[in-house]
Amino acid sequence: VVVSVPKYIEEQPFNLAGIIIGDEDNPSFFSSLKVFEDEGETKVWFLVKADSTEKHQLIFSYGDGCGISITVPVVLN
What does the pLDDT average to over 34-45? Predict the structure, then answer.
């Protein structure tokens, strides 16, 4: 899975991307994701089995300290 990430949200710069597996409040796994640039876009990637039944979520952090945190569910098609 490859995801494009906005460089700024509400003038806050992109800071961190991570993946959560399981419940957000009690995850079975969390890891930060490697960020890379591709044709001028900021992106992150990870591998997951297409038939996985576990809940996956991406978390994106913007700004410093009490900046903006966005959690997005991963929907596999």
Answer: 95
